[in-house]
């Protein structure tokens, strides 16, 4: 399949997902119902979350994939909602683990309330997913959601385990981001196909597309932590470095420097990372052309994702999937 041609005209997510806009509007209504609780504090946090107006890429993938290979239905909307709840639940826990005080330029749940409340709200969302899964009456969809929940947790634990002291290779990095991020993209695409009774062959193609799109998406996130800016991302650069998290640009930098320099940077990353440490590491990432290496990796993984769409019928929905792949490569946040 020909490689993706990234247009110079920057597409917005609203434009990319225009073909499913009416379906997405219906999803928003159903999603609010799925989150409802008669506990006052839970409702306050839910309203706070809904006001953030997140990207909702994952449910959009569910709906787009469903449209591409079939006719969406109420089941499609419900599983799209469960995918988004699963995403929000992991974010609530992640912000506590990362000691984050903001998300997308606004206070995080743990900062607005406290860590205990954030963890319990995440737990509430996970239990809501479980109770709703029982109603699905689809063993295949349940298996996808359960396996994905397990992978998301595994990925975060891997990130803790494979800290600097344990060492992290490029292969470990890819295994980790598959579990903690790409698995939910893959599940979104797959469950969209399942919801409309698509063929097993088409469902597998959607799953593989989502997998590689998700990997490219996480690499891009990690790159933005190195060369993004606060105005666009809403957070300072180098936050991963400050939290002793080694991502692809740093892994490549460490492979490119002399052993003495490598040990020096590893020593910096093993303890409390200072502002000067962050600046030194960012400087070496740029000097070793690790940013360019990472951008090329994103391009190759994106092409891999697109290759799984080749045999699927052309449509405005297929175009949306191609566009979201291009959008990821050029996004600033």
Question: How do the strands and helices of this protein lay out in sequence?
Answer:
Layout: H1 13-16, H2 21-35, H3 40-51, H4 57-69, H5 74-97, E1 102-103, E2 106-107, H6 109-112, H7 115-136, H8 139-161, H9 170-195, H10 200-227, H11 230-233, H12 239-242, H13 248-256, H14 259-270, H15 275-287, H16 290-307, H17 316-330
Antiparallel strand pairs: 1-2
Helix pairs in contact: 2-5, 4-5, 4-9, 4-17, 5-7, 5-8, 5-9, 8-9, 9-10, 10-16, 13-15, 13-16, 16-17
Description of the structure:
With 333 residues, the chain is mainly alpha-helical. The protein has one domain (13-328): Farnesyl Diphosphate Synthase, CATH 1.10.600. Helix content is 74%, strand content 1%. The chain has a two-stranded antiparallel ribbon with strand order 1-2. Helix 5 (74-97) runs parallel beside helix 8 and helix 13 (248-256) packs across helix 15 (275-287).
């Amino acid at each position: 399949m020909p490689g993706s041609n990234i247009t110079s005209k920057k597409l917005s997510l609203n434009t990319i997902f225009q073909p499913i806009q009416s379906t997405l509007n219906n999803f928003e209504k159903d999603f609010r119902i799925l989150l409802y609780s008669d506990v006052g504090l839970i409702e306050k946090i839910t309203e706070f979350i809904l006001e953030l107006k997140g990207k909702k890429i994952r449910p959009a993938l569910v709906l787009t994939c469903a449209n591409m290979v079939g006719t969406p239905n109420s089941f499609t909307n419900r599983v799209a909602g469960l995918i988004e709840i699963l995403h929000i639940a992991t974010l609530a826990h992640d912000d506590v683990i990362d000691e984050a005080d903001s998300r997308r330029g606004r206070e995080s749940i743990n900062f607005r309330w406290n860590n205990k409340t954030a963890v319990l709200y995440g737990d509430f969302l996970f239990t809501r997913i479980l109770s709703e899964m029982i109603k699905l009456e689809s063993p295949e969809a349940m298996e996808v959601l359960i396996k994905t929940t397990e992978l998301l947790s595994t990925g975060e634990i891997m990130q803790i385990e494979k800290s600097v002291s344990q060492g992290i290779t490029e292969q470990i990095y890819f295994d980790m981001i598959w579990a903690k991020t790409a698995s939910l993209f893959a599940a979104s695409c797959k469950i969209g196909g399942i919801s409309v009774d698509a063929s097993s062959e088409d469902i597998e193609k959607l799953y593989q597309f989502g997998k590689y799109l998700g990997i490219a998406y996480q690499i891009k996130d990690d790159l933005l932590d190195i060369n993004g800016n606060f105005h666009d991302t809403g957070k300072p650069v180098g936050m991963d470095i400050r939290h002793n998290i080694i991502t692809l640009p740093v892994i490549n930098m460490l492979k490119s420097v002399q052993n003495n320099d490598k040990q020096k940077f590893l020593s910096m990353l093993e303890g409390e990372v200072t502002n000067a440490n962050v600046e030194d590491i960012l400087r070496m990432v740029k000097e070793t052309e690790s940013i360019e290496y990472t951008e090329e990796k994103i391009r190759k993984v994106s092409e891999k994702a697109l290759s799984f769409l080749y045999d699927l019928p052309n449509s405005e929905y297929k175009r949306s999937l191609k566009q979201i792949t291009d959008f990821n490569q050029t996004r600033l946040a």
